[in-house]
Design goal:
The protein is of the alpha+beta class. Helices cover 34% and strands 32% of the residues.
């Protein structure tokens, strides 16, 4: 498995990946990920987000993006993570989420946020295990395809707090990154 930055050569594979997701998964993705124009725009680098795919040969097995916010929140990045249902539980989500964290640190972001539907226990565990903490619970924020309302949790990772401690204990050498 290889994690690479999304480029035009990955457009068809990424469309195939999103097209193969169950309807229930698509409910909880804000963007129109099955629209070829959207994916082509991402692959061309528009929008300012850093996007990566996990490749198993030519097949996309996972996707992660770090989307910097603008204006007074320009120090914050939003993480979007999707893993193939056949790869869940394999550690791929954790690998992609870590990749997003390292990318955000390298890009100078001070805070990352991720939105997780409250019933997605494995996603909550993944992000809290990486140092994200709850910042907000938005009741009945998301409507699924059957019309049911779901709670949305906003988790945050304050990069400076976590990574300064990691630099102190020498983890920047282990990560191959300057985290200060």
């Amino acid at each position: 498995m290889e994690v690479v930055e999304l480029g035009p050569a990955h457009t068809d594979a990424l469309l195939g990946f999103f097209g193969s997701l169950p309807e229930g998964d698509l409910t909880f993705i804000e963007e129109q990920v099955t629209d070829p124009a959207v994916v082509r725009a991402w692959a061309s680098g528009s929008g300012g987000a850093r996007r990566f795919v996990a490749l198993d040969g030519e097949e996309v097995a996972g996707y992660v993006a770090v989307r910097p916010l603008t204006g007074w929140s320009s120090h914050v990045g939003e993480v979007r993570l999707v893993v193939s249902p056949t790869r869940r539980g394999s550690g791929l989500g954790r690998t992609l989420a870590r990749h997003a964290l390292v990318t955000a640190v390298g890009d100078g972001l001070a805070k990352l946020v991720v939105e997780v539907v409250a019933e997605q226990g494995s996603a909550l565990a993944l992000f809290t295990g990486l140092g994200f903490t709850g910042e907000a619970l938005l009741r009945d924020q998301v409507r699924d395809r059957e019309g049911n309302l779901r709670d949305l949790m906003v988790l945050a990772h304050h990069v400076d707090d976590t990574w300064s401690g990691m630099a102190t204990v020498g983890l920047e050498d282990a990560l191959g990154q300057d985290v200060s």
